[in-house]
Amino acid sequence: MQDLQLYQQLLGLDEPWYVTGVRLNVKAQEVEVTVAVRDQLWGCPQCGCRMHVHQWENRTWRHLDSCQFKTLIRADVPVVLCPEHGSQTVAVPWAEKYGRFTKLFERLAIDVLRECSVSAACGLLRISWDEADGIKQRAVARGRLRKQAHPVRRLGVDEKSAGRGQNYVTVVARLEPGQAATVEYVGDGRKQEALDGYWQQVSAEHRAGVEAVAMDMWEPYFNSTVANVPEAAGKIVHDPYHLGQMLSEAVDKVRRGEHRVLMETGDERLAGTKYVWLYGWENLPEAHRERFDELRGQKLKTSRAWAIKEMFRDFWASQTAEEGKEFFRRWYGWAIRSRLGPVKQVARSFKAHLGNILTYFTHRITNAALEGLNNRIAGLVKKAFGYRNRERFKTDILFHLGGLDLYPSQ
Ligand SMILES: [Zn+2]
Fold it and tell me: Which residues surround ligand 1, an ion (CB under 5 A)?
């Protein structure tokens, strides 16, 4: 009698459900708890209409272990036959509909899956890979459903390579100030449809409420946002992170070209300096400083390109769009007269998109946090040894980085 009451308590069972038996199978290392109901009258899960039990469905759920013993709950669950909704199995308080685990077990499994790899979690929880996958899928579906009601005002869009080759996904992240960035959506590829897919699942009201969208100068994303967000032109921001990246790439192109030319005369000055030029002045590691100062003192194209990149950082310190525009005019003149092909090319590109660069001074949004998420996504890819299954990859991103409420409701 004692263990019946104990399990009644552990399962948090209330009338009309009660524990009828507890059986310990030492050989199988299992505890089997049988649960029954007293009531003969049940409401249809669809309409609430009360009726007699039509038949019983025997079901089993995995519950939290009892002292390392796998614990199973077995019950005959009432099925009603509703004149309107047909045969309906009633809900049990300890599990979700169709679930094969109790809510408490799923909760634990979610916690474990968030902390370790799937294979480690399977080992700890003694569940199969498919079961772990199912728990994740259900958790994400639950979380997304709960999230739909909340508008996202500030977001960032970026592409991410998903494993091998030109296999891209489009990642949309929520970038609210003072809050951790979360992944809102993962779309296939990086064409316009990839981002359209996000906008289509957002209500018209919430789309109109979007205040700012940070992105690089990738046209399909721009077009998708213009097509889906009212007055998007004033909301799209080509953000500091991506512009800085473009300039760094230009500096590196100049360096590679110059290095090639220098090497023709056996001049190895630029060998192994790639990373030296990527740092901002104040972040330059001590180990590089001496070499860098020496290089800076020589009249190298690379150091000129670097100086133009560094100067552009002050652009972001402008107080207003007007001030930014004036700064840009001066910087652009300098860059365009630099006689450095890659730098001129980037400067022209900035000029062509200036309207959506100056929007920064209204919205002050940057994709830097989304890049942080991207690194964590790369970590997921690595942990899963590259994803062959695209849907699984998307689920995993949302499971780990979606900021979703994943637990079954109590
Ligand atoms: Zn009904």
Answer: 44, 46-47, 82, 84-85
